[in-house]
UniProtKB/TrEMBL annotation, chain A:
Natural source organism: Lutimaribacter pacificus
Protein's UniProt keywords contain Coiled coil: no
Alphabetical UniProt keywords: Membrane, Transmembrane, Transmembrane helix
InterPro entries in alphabetical order: DUF1468
Protein's name according to its UniProt entry: Tripartite tricarboxylate transporter TctB family protein
Residues spanning the membrane: 7-28, 40-58, 79-108, 120-141
From TrEMBL, chain B:
Classification via Pfam families: TctA
Organism: Lutimaribacter pacificus
Domain DUF112: residue ranges: 17-440
Keywords, alphabetical: Membrane, Transmembrane, Transmembrane helix
Name the UniProt record assigns to this protein: Putative tricarboxylic transport membrane protein
Top-level taxon of the source organism: Bacteria
InterPro entries (UniProt xref): DUF112_TM (IPR002823)
Keyword Transport found: no
Record has Isomerase as a keyword: no
Ranges that cross the membrane: 12-37, 109-129, 135-155, 162-181, 201-223, 318-341, 361-379, 391-408, 414-429, 471-488
PANTHER family recorded: TRICARBOXYLIC TRANSPORT PROTEIN (PTHR35342)
Amino acid sequence: MRRANAISGFVLAAIAILALLVVIPWQIENGPAGMMSPRLVPQLMMGAVLVLSVLLVLTNLEPAGRDDPPPFSREELRALALISGVFAVSITLYLTIGALAFGSVLVAGTLVVLGERRPLIVAGMPVALMLLLWVLFYKILGTAIL
Amino acid sequence: MEYLLIAIQDVFTGPSLFWVAGGVLLGYILGAIPGLGKATGVAVSIPLTFYLDPVSALGLLIGIAKGSGAGSAVSAILLNTPGEPSSAPTALDGYPLARQGKAQKTLKMGLFASVIGDFVSTVVLILLAAPLARYALLIGPVELCAILVFSLTFIGGLSGGSMIKGLIAACFGIFFATVGMETETFVPRLTFGFLQLDDGISLVPMAIGMLAVAEMIVQAGNLRELDAQTERMKDSDNPDDRRITGPEWRRCAPVIARGSLIGTIVGILPGLGASVGSFLSYGATKRASKTPEKFGTGMIEGVAASESADNAVVPSSLIPLFALGIPGSVIAAILIAAFILHGLTPGPRMFTEQPRLVADLYIAMLSASLIMLALGYAGQRIFAMIIRVPLRLIIPGVLLFCCVGAYMETSSVFSIYIMLAFTLIGFLSRKLDFSFVTFLIGFVVAPKLELSFRQSLQLLNHDWANLVKHPIAIAFFLAAIATVLAVARKEARQSVGTIDTKREELS
């Protein structure tokens, strides 16, 4: 974790510098005279992040041991990529077709990428969950959500 | 007292009790589903109360708030996914206990601790709301700013393995809370031209992304191992693993008492919230324990500490609302709208203008605590059945509910984009051990912190020497400094110890 701490410290320090020098001046006006600047709190926070990130780097400069495990496993990164892909497809379908397609593909797609292969489950679970949502919101709570 | 007796008659003879029970049941179910917490449940249910009498309506909403507080422990214990951020410490020990085949015991302890904390806090609300109005006025902006700084420092130092990382997370939480229109100058901040960001980043999609969706992705990455554990994870054959034994009750009784007290005090202090309460209680119990190193591996005291404080926060957070008309929490803020809708304007005058309605509300709240115990206990076997379902079948449903929860906040797909952005941040913060809880608490208290900071500057006339006129604030600032020094010293010692061990290994 020491190597990961040092790298994340570098990255966060870079983000803080970028925010202080570019993003905050670009995205926040100075505000009227005589009032506390709207930039003050964001600048204070990014200043604090910069100082703390430098401290994080300095306290983790000791070389990492051989048994220092990487923070991410290959399976976790794979799951992140696959589920992100399912979300991307689902949102595209929401924008082009509608909410029903979004929900169905999100559930069925996630089931498939997680290794479920039984057709009854892959086809039946989206239907069951969408029906459950409809009963919960439209019948029990009486509130339209779309 | 006269009004309380009339209130018992009002609540127990009319339809109110049915609606209170319905609220508790609904809240329990919503709380158990990750991402659909009390705030979402109460907000969604307000339109349902239009056609109910005031006591039934307010009883239903209070029931949802209380039920979801207890229900959120179910997913924390069984899925390692807190239903709400305030149940995060419950998962630390609750999940390992469930994995050891002690799910029923853990759920029972979570329920009992929740009910006791909630009941004690409700009694404190009844006893303190009116008299406290005079004393609560002593907490001005300077004191509030100091209390918030202390809370963030304390939680930043406590949660996660590194104080520096905890404080970085808190700073980022506050930074993201500044997105949107600044309330005094109306200058848009960090909106990048998106009109949806003018009102700021909404807490619900952010919290759902960071907590629920990120956790689902981490669990998806460890699916094989977790499914294998689920197959092995059965209720133990030992009857003592399914019930709370006498020695466990004796160990947990003082923990629940302390958690109830901490939760009640945190609830009274405006702006801190249930997460602060549950983490403070968990930390205090860990420090008081003779075996602090065992926390996080399955200590039933951890569950008792967290749940008692978590549920004690909700009723006592209504004290500033009832006494001063100021919401002390997100749920109190949402409830203001419902109270006004049903003719009860929160504030000191409601005790003299509508004493019967206030008494009805108190009795409905006490009833909700007892109903929560009955429903929670009766439904425990059903909730415990979740652990037998493989994770690959749970994750898609949770993701769908998360999307619905995020979408409902603004009825816009933009909320889902926000949820996904914070999913990535939550995933990274989990893996790199940056406390996402500190981040979220920083985000929640940031508007109050900024406002109180701004007011403090004006009150102190931009001269910090004037702080001597605010001894309570000085005490909290000193406590914050002491916390930083104490935690830094402890971490430095640990770091030196680790380096020495490595050198010994190399030599």
